[in-house]
User: What shape does this take?
Amino acid sequence: MILVVFIETANMKILQLCCFTDLWNSIHEVESIDLKLGLDIFNYPDEYASEFDLVCAAPPCDQFTIANNLRWQNSPDYFIEVAKKCFSMCLNTGLYWFLENPPGRIEKFIPELTKYRIITWTGSRTNKQYVIYGNFLIIARPAKRYGKANINRNKKIREIWQPDLIENIELCLTN
Assistant: This one.
C-alpha cells in the first residue's frame, strides 16, 4: 500500500541504512548505519527502525545492477542478506521509509519489494536510473538530462543521495 503523507513537523528523525550523506536539511536529526562508518546493520534489531520518522535504505548495488550482468556472482549471498535486512528494517519502521537500488536483479531475490515500487528516478547529475521503493508517494520533478556523466566524478557525486532527490523527499513528507 502506498500512502501520501504529510508529517506534522518539518523536524524529522531520519535513519539511513547502508548509506550516509550530509545533504538532509540541518533541522533533521540524521543517524547512519554503514560499514564505512564502522557500523554493521546486522548488529541492529529490525525494531530499531521504529524509533525514526523516516528510514532511507540504499543496500549495496554492486551485484544487482544491469551494468554488472557480465560479472554477476552466481550466489551473492552477502549482498542479498544486506538488502533483505534493509527491507526488513524499513518494514518495521512503523512510519515512512524508502529503499533505492538501480534497476536490475534485486526484485529477483526480494520479490516482495515489487509491490512497494514507487518510481524509477533518473539522477539529474548522473543520468543513472534508480528504482525507489517505499510506503509513501514520492512526487519527482522531471530531471534534466545532461548527456553522459563525467568520467572524473567521484562516488559521492554518483550516488542517489543528490540534492534534488533529497529535496523531493523532504517536500513530500513535510508541510
Remarks:
- Confidence is low (pLDDT under 50) at residues 1-9, 143-150.
